[in-house]
Design goal:
heterodimer, A: 191 residues, alpha+beta, Alpha-Beta Plaits, four-stranded mixed beta sheet, 6 helices, B: 750 residues, alpha/beta, Rossmann fold, Dimethylsulfoxide Reductase, domain 2, Barwin-like endoglucanases, seven-stranded mixed beta sheet, six-stranded mixed beta sheet, 28 helices, 27 strands, globular
Amino acid sequence: MMPAEGMGEATVGDKINLVIDLDRCWGCKACEVACKQELELGAGPRPMLVEAIGPRKIEDQLHWDFVPVFCQHCHQPACRDACPTGAIFMASDGTVQIDPDLCDRCGACESACPYGAIAHTDQHGPVKCTLCFSRREHGGMPSCAQHCIGRAFTVASEQELSHVTEDKKYVWRTGQVVYTSDKWASLGQSV
Amino acid sequence: MESQRKSFAVNLLGISPDPEFRQTLLSPGAGLRGTGEFKPSSPAAAITPLPGRSTPGVKIIRSACFSCNTACEVLVFVDEASGKVLKVEGDPESPITKGVLCAKGLSARDLVDNPERLRTPLKRVGERGGGKWQPVSWDAALDLVADRLMAYKDKYGPQGVAFLEGTRRGWSRCFSRLANAFGAVNHGATGWAQCLWPRLVENSATFGAPYMESSDCENSNCIIAWGLNPPATWPVKAAEIMDARQRGACLIVVDPHFSETAAKADLWLQLRPGTDTALGLALLHVIIKKGMYDTDFVENWTVGFERLKGHVAKCTPDWGEGITRVPRRQIEKAAELYAGANPASISRCLAVDVDHDSLQACRVLSVLATVTGNIDIPGGNILVSSRGETSQNTHSFIGTEYVSKESLPLRRGYDRYPFLCTDLCPVPSAHMPTLWETVISEEPYPVKAALIFGANAAVSYANSARVKEALAGLEFLVVADLFLTPTGAMADIVLPASSWLERDNVISSFQSSYTHTIAQQKATHVAEARSDVDIVIDLANRLGLGNMFWQSETDMYDHLLAPAGVSLAEFKDRKRLHAPLEFERYKKTGFKTPSGKVEIYSSVFEKNGCAPLPTYTEPFQSPLKTPELAEAYPLIMTSGRRPFFRHSENRQNPLLREQCPRSPVRIHPQTAEKLGIDPGDPVIIETPTGSARGVAELTEGLQPDVIQTMPGWWGEENINNLIPWNEFAPGIGTVSMHSTMCRVNKYDAG
């Protein structure tokens, strides 16, 4: 859970985005378990949670969709603003990280996150997605992205982002996590 | 926190799907989508290199998961000092999986960490099922087993000892060989008449080879997933279908339930459970009537097409709708899409195997692929390549010749189920319900002892109460498993088997790869646990059958791999054997059927008392067939799986149990409302055979008179308690698992 060495040396150009094609998510939860394995969590806290929407009928058609919900690595992180000890910081790769040495486990970040993406653990205090910085440091992908059975996740640098999303009609982001879809117009087109 | 996440997801999607997105194919003018150029799937599918993943003191072992039959290639991270497994990940360098792995594989460390793992052989002390055990040495346990088996064989004949198996946690038919070497005519497995064997024996009769089990989705323009929900059961196939779909292939899903796969489909055919054959016949009617069949293939490579034409003349879309409940226009559209796309493939799975007319349901799909000329072409249904090694799925490997011809008629079911019990079957075996009844009644002869490897018989067979009665009546029971299952709890001797993390194996199956044989490598060990192959070879020696076996597990795999020119050690080093797909091989060799052609009219079926043209019959139980039963038991019970468990396995794994803590029962909201059932309520399902409990989940993805349950739960949540065995599928003896009339009520714990 320690910030990786060298993380501060990355340049702005090395910012990482995780793009999720919602049209490819099967809802199989491999990403949830992959995440827990990486963060060494047992049953209970779920830094990654796949929300199932439906089955629901819209104009006589059934829909069943899945949205992996986790830390968005917000550009304006509410958790950071809420943290009284300055334990939450934005790394130069664009991700939002928690420094466990500074964290006093007050729980303010958990309440502040608008996505409910910070899980509480008795053992580690607040736990959330790190975009698997240690895996990336070793040339790997975030574990959720690698293991996804629908291959819904794509890792993209800031420069690659427009290429990765260009074929998709709808794109939504508030940070380094980007959702795309050809189906759900309410995502909008904001990149 | 959870509600924040939910409302974020709900708001993100909104309630207005783009009208152009996968517009319903039934709308006027709608046809095949995206016939344009191939676009590679997401860059996330690109292979990332392994170097650098290793850290000092951690060894990475390349292996293959056996949390299900897919056997995805994995990396097992092992602590060098302690030998402990740290984690299991997908192998990003695998050409087959490209790194994906499901929840079961990712959490497989529990298999070796779980404190409940059996660690030594156990001998029963006190009453059967009393839960008192004494640890004994392997020598003591196996000597006792060998002595007792020989004693029962001497007293009752080899038919008095049953050899039963399940998934055996890996691909080996070594146990089958032991059964045959012993002369055990009553050798069988939980699933064979309900899983894969119907498809394989049907393939043999129709094509002379398993053409239908491999579907080349990667190159297909139209994929029919027939009773298949691969994100829950077949990760590699799920990834393949998702890629094909993105490329523009049309996806048609046949399922009574709006599954995860159906949710991605262009066309979902919601059939009434058990009516697969009727739906297939109606599709054939439309294809033939519209002249959409492949004239060239039909004329040159098939027999019986003219008879088929007459046979399906009455199977109009209206007839089909009346039986299957799939609207006429959807039947027509599906037929046009499948026959119009070139090439097109059918992926079929367990759903047709568990039908009351399993062989007929399998046949109708084979005939569909045949008349449309989608056999052994890129993008169609294909034959896997041979990588040169000796297959274990042969009569010579399992040693069928060791069983004397005179004793074969003693095999229970032999006179009734030729496709299961004779050489027509890949592993000729006994009909299990008939055998269990024999154990209870001792008619026509006593069966007093049983050896059960890798099968949780008390849970996994239909009519569980009856099976438990039979198990309790045995004089001597040996069970080899990872955990003390309800079956092991009834045993005299329990043997600790190893999990896939503790084994070497040579994995060659269409479920894993069409082009590769892959290596499973021992990554760790747990106390005294041993692999089934190792136990079988040791036991064979103690039974005086050593000359029919190999010196060791390694020796066996060396022998199997020899024709491919590698030893087990070299194979593990190379990691896999590869052979590219070949197509249209039949043009050189013909089809290995009696006529040398694809038998639309099956001479093998005719000779063995089965309808030679695919023929529909109503399920054994249904609102139409048994209206008086339906009055008291008005709901049709089917079942489906989730990505967290296979069969009765993995219920001990906290990460998986968290995803699915109780046996879920899916019910339509209207039905639930009538019954006063809310989501999350405990419910009880009842049939004249028994009852099972569960927890209600409401979904509009079922018809109001259909419920979907989930198999594999131990104890009172076991849906096998509900399933009767009064009637069986002709020819093979399948227990109808997906069409049982039942009733559901809220369960009042008070």
